[in-house]
Amino acid sequence: MLNVTKTFLPEISEYISYLEKIWHNGQVTNEGPLVKELEKKLIEFTGVKHAIYVTNGTIALQLAIKALEIKGKVITTPFSYCATLNSIIWEGCEPIFADINSKSLTCETSDISSKIDSETKAILTTHVYGNAGDLEAQEFLANEHNIPIIFDAAHCFGVNYKGKSIFNYGTVSTCSFHATKVFHTIEGGAIFTNDDKLAEKIRLLKSFGHKSDDYFLPGINGKTSEFHAAMGLVNLNHFNKIVEHRKLVFDWYQTELNNLPNLKLFKWNDNIEKNHSYFPVLFDTESNLLNVVKEFNQKNIYPRRYFYPSLNLLPFVSRQNCKVSENISKRILCLPLSSEITYEEVLEVCTILKTNLK
Length: 358
Ligand SMILES: *Cc1c(COP(=O)(O)O)cnc(C)c1O
What we know:
single chain, Aspartate Aminotransferase, domain 2, Aspartate Aminotransferase, domain 1, 7-stranded mixed beta sheet, 17 strands, binds pyridoxal-5'-phosphate, DegT/StrS_aminotransferase, PyrdxlP-dep_Trfase, PyrdxlP-dep_Trfase_major
């Protein structure tokens, strides 16, 4: 069986060596030494001033919205995982969709701009597939209107933009360390910011809002365990090797699938150093995509429709049109990509794709 991704698992002995540390320390959660060590390494790795390690990428978004005291309309993308949208709604805000650019698949700056009004409290968009859209223009727009901009950078661990970590952008950037992501801690996520005050507030909010006997804010439990941090510390040592293999796979796909009729490959922003987390292909029609997926599934191959459906069409949001996102979400498919997939497997995927492409 070949899935869209396969979770990287290190040698069990490496993980056990960290478990021994946990037993030695006697602390299993509540900002233990391994959580602190992982946060320190995340800061070193990204060059962002603050990294706050939390339970998952969704709570990372919620904590960012909460800490920035965003209440009201939030301009967001229809082309993302539902967690982006859900975090907005869960925090009692109203999502206003800005359609995406057909190339970057991130929000079109002019559409964000046209939807901003006096009731807009924030912008929250996604760097889809670890790609960058109009980052600077959107930051500028947010600054101009004096509202925060949150980047859901769940796909972006290891991604650089213009030579520095993409997590440096936005008022806040969040990441997911879920088992399906390129770097994982089983479950987990992080909030990155260069703002000292905001970082302190988020830290407080993720630990119930109190420091020992001093109660400041109605916080939540967004803490992570030492067991999760341990997986992160081990996996971080393998990260370069993982990305190296993924880059190879990427090149194999690109060579095999270049210049096919009725199939387009995704192009990343020239200023991006990729983490090779996804390999999306765009079909000319949805029926072509569905036909190919059927053939894949019969051979036990399970690519994923990242992202389908367009979030503006979900039954619990008010009707808003996003023509580009609706069109692309029907036709885009992410092919299997992992640190373990072999050349033979990639060739098989490509052969099935090519023989069934009409
Ligand atoms: C995975 C993902 C999330 C959610 O992260 P979790 O750690 O699973 O909660 C949010 N946004 C995007 C774009 C994602 O891909």
